[in-house]
Design brief:
2 domains; transport; ABC_transporter-like_CS; globular; four-stranded antiparallel beta sheet; Rossmann fold; 11 helices; six-stranded mixed beta sheet
């Protein structure tokens, strides 16, 4: 499989602080790859570089062979690289349906909300009807068809996460970046989300995720990339990572909560762990 995303010796500095140092790895088409590490390891900083929210101090990221250096987030999204955020990335005062419609209008290059309002007022043309049908199909696919006319902010936390995924999928990405997607979810919500991740991959979408839930990471990942203090310390399949001495040491050095995360990575913990 060829690389769809290449992180090429990326470094990020904030004054004298090195947030990321010489980070390099590839994500191949069709993979589910997890980016893990203790708190402060540089995971979200790396995501922000990949999606245009932060400029690297050195190196570059390439998506499908195209350098993303200097591109704005919306331009990167239009190339086919979409993301969700640590916090629920929904418009809380809009309906669930409107949230997905906004994403679909971004695909068409219409960034304003007027077309959505026109659709709700019954002034939709054939193109608008097609977008509305697609929005309804996306919400049905993530299991929220029965909630589409409710305000997104009124949904349970796990359901808001699903809206965020539907919103990202509305941009028709080739690759989806998920930033701590199951953080704060209960066990039942996490199981639903794991099924959704697998369904997304079955649609041909490559996935890169940042996550602290070690059982979930070990279950769903094809490969795992591990950061510590902004540096790559390990990369490989779950079986190799759970037994890697550098990974175990990185988590054990973070205190009791990370100690349990290291145990979890070895399969001895049953509940999700947030290190």
């Amino acid at each position: 499989m060829s690389a769809i995303l290449s992180v090429d010796h990326v470094g990020v500095r904030f004054g004298g602080l090195v947030a990321i140092a010489d980070l390099h790895f590839d994500v191949r088409e069709g993979e589910i790859v997890s980016l893990i590490g203790p708190n402060g390891a540089g995971k979200t900083t790396a995501f922000n570089v990949m999606t245009g929210f932060l400029k690297p101090s050195q190196g570059e990221v390439r998506f499908r062979g195209t350098s993303l250096k200097g591109l704005a987030p919306h331009a990167i999204t239009r190339l086919g690289l979409a993301r969700t955020f640590q916090r629920t990335s929904v418009f809380p005062d809009d309906t669930v349906f409107d949230n997905v419609m906004i994403g679909l209008h971004q695909v068409g290059g219409r960034l304003g909300r007027a077309p959505v309002l026109d659709a709700l007022l019954g002034r939709a043309g054939a193109g608008e009807r097609q977008l509305r049908a697609r929005a309804a199909a996306l919400l049905d696919w993530v299991g929220l068809s029965g909630r589409m006319h409710e305000k997104a902010g009124a949904l349970a936390y796990g359901e808001q996460r699903l809206v965020g995924v539907a919103l990202a999928l509305a941009t028709e990405p080739a690759m989806l970046l998920l930033d701590e997607p199951v953080s704060g979810m209960n066990a039942s919500e996490t199981r639903v989300f794991v099924r959704l991740i697998r369904q997304v991959r079955e649609r041909g979408i490559t996935i890169l995720l940042v996550e602290h839930d070690m059982p979930m990471v070990m279950e769903v990942s094809d490969r795992i990339v591990v950061l510590n203090y902004g540096r790559l310390i390990a990369e490989g399949p779950p079986d190799r990572i759970r037994n890697d001495p550098a990974v175990i040491e990185a988590y054990l050095g973070q205190g009791s909560s990370a100690r349990q995360a290291a145990k979890s990575a070895h399969g001895s913990a049953r509940e999700p762990v947030h290190a």
